[in-house]
Design a protein that fits this description.
Elements lengths: L1 H4 L6 H7 L3 H9 L3 H8 L3 H7 L2 H28 L1 H20 L7 H19 L9 H15 L6 H7 L3 H9 L3 H28 L1 H19 L3 E8 L5 E8 L2 H8 L5 H25 L4
């Protein structure tokens, strides 16, 4: 989840869904409530630990943190050096993940189909949007954190990409790199508020409208394929703090058009191979999860 969350286009929520821990994650986050605060106030640590499923959360967030520290630089380097291959891998991963998630729908009807279409449209619109000029105030940093963390736990919607749309992606990365404590605390507080509130909403929707919610989430994932399409043409660019020209807004093109526009090799066969690798990885995880945690 940590390595996925750092990429603008891939969601940690997608990884949670693939590995079968998504609803447990939501329930564990939701359990941080008034009862938990009561246990904390009375210093009943054992009861608090069990109430919030702390072992699960501790191991999960330790994994996310470890990945952010160790893999973030590797992934960003690979995206820079071999973008077509990396995005192809993510494309294959998301396609098969969406199909696996659709398997969770037990009762197909017109409403479920509409929910899939609605999720697709929303994700496609978000991933097609151009980064906007946004306020510089600390209050907006708080809002960016709250919205981005919600996206991070939604399969198909990338929190990193939401920060990019809000114009705060590089700002937040620099704040972490330069250890700007005030900015980190404000952003972190926004993340906590967003996570605790939004997890409750999604968890309630899962229990009340399971098939429709799964349909919307799978639609999110299908719509997000727009963002991870491997062949892109830069329409707008910007100069980063190192003086390098980076794409700000890109549009998808076909492999042949990519070769004509950029003069670069489209690596079509390699892309197919890496997409197949994404397919096989998810299928392997799905089979392993079914073996370790069989249903009935």
């Amino acid at each position: 989840m940590g390595s996925a969350d750092v990429v603008p286009g891939v969601s940690g929520g997608t990884i949670a869904f693939i590995t079968g821990i998504y609803e447990q994650l939501l329930d564990s986050i939701k359990s941080v409530d008034i009862i938990a605060l009561g246990y904390l106030r009375k210093f009943q640590i054992k009861a608090l630990w069990e109430h919030v499923n702390a072992t699960f959360l501790l191991v999960l967030f330790a994994g996310i943190g470890t990945s952010l520290i160790t893999l973030a630089k590797v992934i960003t380097h690979l995206l820079s050096a071999n973008p077509i291959q990396v995005w192809s891998f993510f494309f294959g991963l998301i396609v098969i993940s969406a199909l696996i998630i659709l398997r969770e729908i037990k009762n197909w009807n017109f409403t479920v189909i509409l929910s899939i279409l609605a999720g697709f449209i929303v994700a496609y619109f978000i991933t097609s949007s151009s980064p906007a000029e946004t306020p510089e105030g600390k209050w907006f940093l708080f809002i960016a954190g709250a919205v981005a963390i919600c996206a991070m736990i939604l399969p198909g919607i990338s929190g990193a990409f939401i920060l990019l749309l809000f114009g705060k992606y590089e700002y937040v990365l620099n704040a972490i790199k330069d250890f700007k404590v005030a900015d980190i605390l404000i952003f972190g507080l926004g993340c906590i508020v967003g996570l605790l509130s939004f997890a409750r909403v999604v968890s309630w929707l899962f229990k009340k409208y399971h098939n429709i919610t799964v349909g919307v989430l799978s639609g999110f994932m299908i719509g997000s394929l727009n963002k991870v399409w491997p062949w892109k043409q830069a329409v707008e660019t910007y100069v980063d703090r190192h003086g390098d020209i980076k794409p700000l807004y890109e549009v998808n093109v076909l492999p042949n058009d990519y070769a004509q526009i950029t003069g670069a090799e489209p690596h079509f066969l390699e892309a197919l191979g890496f997409a197949a690798g994404g397919f096989l990885l998810v299928l392997s995880i799905d089979r392993l999860a079914a073996f370790l945690n069989p249903k009935n």
